[in-house]
Amino acid sequence: RPLALTGFGGPIRLGRRGERSLLAQTAFLHGNDGQPVLMFAVDVIGFDAAWTERVRAKVNERTGIPPKNIILNASHTHCAPQTQRLFTYEGSGALDETFIGSLENTLVEIGCEAFTNSGDATLRVCLGTNTHVTHRRRWDGSKWINAPNFADEPIRDLPILDCQREDGARVLIAIVSGHPTTWAETI
Asked: pTM for the complete prediction?
């Protein structure tokens, strides 16, 4: 069914079917201190704090992983339904409670599956280059506008966690910001 997409700041855009599916992925690891860590990467614009805590609590209940060790990362895509109550505004589209509930259940299930099916792995930290980053905001003297900004080269460093299991399965986790235009101001 068509769902209202988020983050466009204008008329509601209905998503029907894209060329690629939205993804929700997870990885279960043990830190150097032996503590379990569960990481999620989800194709949505962001999460509400209360909703995030609910997901963490449900995963903790079933796995024992401390909630502080459960990391949810949003890809900040604008091609997914609205998921944040805080950022609803006129024209942004209503929250789709069915989608949000389904996403919550999916994350709990795939998180528990990752925990149950975990195995030993070798971890390496690597640094790659993101060739697709561009600045899409420019200061016009009074406000930011969405336009290519060729005067300011973006940071292209791409931290990667390379996980390879003994059975040969391999996962690469890339750490990417949805708005690299803000990196220079926040680092």
From this structure: 0.71
